[in-house]
Give the backbone structure.
Amino acid sequence: MDLSIIILNYKSKGLVKQCLKALRLNPPTVSHEIIVVDNDSRDGVGEMLVRDFPEVRFIQTGKNRGYAAGNNIGLGASNGRLLLILNPDISVRAGSVDELVEFMDANPKIGIAGPKLVKATGEVDQSCYRYPTCLVPLYRRTPLGRTAFGRRALGEYLMADYDRRDVRGVDWLLGAVLLVRREAFEQIGPLDEQFPLYFEDTDWCRRFWEAGWQVTYFPGSEMVHLHDRLSAQDRWYSALFMNQAARWHVISFLKYLWKWRESKPRG
C-alpha cells in the first residue's frame, strides 16, 4: 500500500462528504486507502459512508478524543508507506495528491511535506510558519498586534517575507494537510495528545526537525482550504476569555512552551 489518507470528523459530515467527493473526482493514481475516524459526532457520518462511500474504512472512537488522539487512531490503523492527514475542510485538486507523493518520493530526507493551500477565493492561505515566540498569541488576539513591534513579530511568525512560490524547509506546517513518511513516523511517534487543540502540528514538526527529518512546504501541489479559524471568530476580549477554542489555544500554547522550554529552535 502506497498511501493511507486519514480524515478526522467531528460534527462535519457535510465537509467529510465534500472532501470524499473531491478525492473520488481526483483520486491518487498510487495504491491507497481512505480511513475516516469519527470523534463521536453523532451526525450520521457512519451511515452516510456506508451509503455513499462503501470503499472507505470507518472507525468510531466512542467519544470526542480531540485532534491528536483522533488522528493517532487513524494513523495506527493505516497500512501505507506514506500517511496523509487530511482535514474535512480540504478539497484536493486534480493531481494534487500525486504531486505531493512524487515530491516526497524524490526527497528521502523529508519527513513531513505540505502543499500550498488556497482559499475558495483563490487567495493563498497561511499554512507554513516560523516557531512562535511567547508573545505571538497576545499579538494575534489583542490590539497589540497593530503596533509596530506587534506587526513585526507577526510578520516574522507568518513568514511575510516568503512568497510561497518556491520549495522551502519551514519550521512547521499547518495540520490541515500533512504528508508523513512512515519511516519517520515510526521513529518520531504519534501526535502528542497532551494538547487539547492546536500546537499538535507545531510540536510534531519540531520533533521531526529535532530527529533530523526535514519539514518542507511544497507549492507544486495545491489544495483548497475552506477553513474559518474557530479561535478568532469573536472580538478579541470575548474570544480571549469566553471562546472555548481560544481557551484551548492558550492552554495548548502554554503546554507547548513548557515542553520546549529547554530547547533552542532550529537555525
Q: What stands out?
A: The radius of gyration is 18 Å. The chain has one domain: 3-132+162-229. The first helix runs from residue 13 to 25.
